[in-house]
Amino acid sequence: MAKLKQLPPRSKVKSSDTWDLASLFASDDAWEAAFNEWEGRIGEYATFQGKLAESPESLAGCLQFDLDLDRTAERLGNYAFLKTAEDVGESEYQRMHGRFMTVASLAAQAASFIRPEILAIATAKMKTFLDSPALAPYKLILQRVLRFKPHTLGKKEENLLAMQTEMAQAANQIFRQLNDADLRFGAIKNDRGDLVELSHASFSALLHVPDRAVRRKAFQQYYREYADHSHTLAASLAGSMQRDIYYAKARGDARLAGGMPVRKGCKTYGFHHTR
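and the corresponding structure tokens:
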């Protein structure tokens, strides 16, 4: 029998063939230190609550604080996500990403007062605020917040939606684990007669070999695995759609036409990225 050529584990792949995450964090320890600092600052949101209408400077201070935490969260979240993408079966990075999502939900809850407080500012007063030099760097952010006023709920309702962050990601996470970790496509002979492992990586290459029979077999064998899991995949898709429809209905989104959900973004931290 021909020896099966399997995909190498990431530990055996040359570093030159892998992505370099050093621009985000030099190491997992550096990520851990930044994560702990970020988590420790979330409580500072409370210092701004109830004070946004006091002056343009108060509002500007809150917006800048939120932006700073959001940028840190962006780096932390991308690093953790890309680490899980290296090997979705690696439990350590699943744990890292899970911790990030948990704290991101707490950050969204802590920031959930910002949008309702901004919208509670009287129109005339907000117009004066927008003309203030202190808010000049944040004018576009505020204009976007005001535009979505019909779809913004009260403080309690916004906090409840923010609490659902982790739960809302369940359908996506189930699909990722199934697609990237659990599906097995078997082996196939390529056009040189070598027995290779069929995977997401090798599938594309096999579709470009000159031998039509190899291309046909690779295509059919690859998609047969999806057909065999069609019920699970359909349930995952349905869960994702139900989530989007729920958020659209909860916010009274008039763009939910014909049952087609409209997503406003995938980020889960910072007031301006929450649903």
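(Above: one complete record from the training split.) Confidence is low (pLDDT under 50) at residues 256-275.
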